[in-house]
């Protein structure tokens, strides 16, 4: 895991990044700025249990491509999840919390993931581990209203104007952050190649 100092606020931005693209950079930039983060861990996963591994580029390649486009020094590209032997977010977040008791974390996800978030293993546990910042993505703006996660944790929604305080709230707590959106997607980029 990247080095952190006591009391820091850190965003956790996980994904396959297959391939990483400027839309990922935009989400990271919005999260850094709107949440007032000290760091953002760009967590390149070994694989996604909900997605086919048929077209998954090698982990080292996805890390190198991520490092090439993530030029903010506060972004730490990492693949520590592989060394943990984890492929499920809930377990990874438990390990992160165990090893970093005095750090304030926020899980960051694109709004396009809200639609299927309730299919993730232990999704309610994820929502109760760290606060969540959902960043707007094209075609997914309304998903925060209709998703099972949004309905289940409606009581824990924090107004976007208070996003900078999200890391200081006890989970469950989440917010939806509107902002510039990139039409890029890894799926579309793979289809072009």
State the share of residues found in helices, binned by percent.
25-40%
Number of strands: 6
Low-confidence blocks of residues: none
Alpha-carbon Rg, integer: 15 Å
Q: Identify the quaternary structure here.
A: single chain
The ordered H/E elements are EHEHEHHEHEHHEH
Number of individual domains: 1
The biggest sheet amounts to: 6 strands, parallel
| CATH homologous superfamily caption | HUPs
Quick check: average pLDDT?
A: 89
Estimated share of beta-strand residues = 15-25%
Structural class: alpha/beta
| CATH fold node name | Rossmann fold
Separate helix tally: 8
How would the global form be characterised? globular
Pfam families: CTP_transf_like
EC number: 2.7.7.18
Protein name: Probable nicotinate-nucleotide adenylyltransferase
Keywords: ATP-binding, NAD, Nucleotide-binding, Nucleotidyltransferase, Pyridine nucleotide biosynthesis, Transferase
Write the layout of secondary structure elements.
Layout: E1 9-15, H1 22-35, E2 39-44, H2 59-69, E3 75-78, H3 80-84, H4 89-99, E4 104-110, H5 123-127, E5 132-135, H6 143-146, H7 148-152, E6 174-177, H8 186-192
Parallel strand pairs: 1-2, 1-4, 2-3, 4-5, 5-6
Keywords: ATP-binding, NAD, Nucleotide-binding, Nucleotidyltransferase, Pyridine nucleotide biosynthesis, Transferase
Protein name: Probable nicotinate-nucleotide adenylyltransferase
Pfam family, one: CTP_transf_like
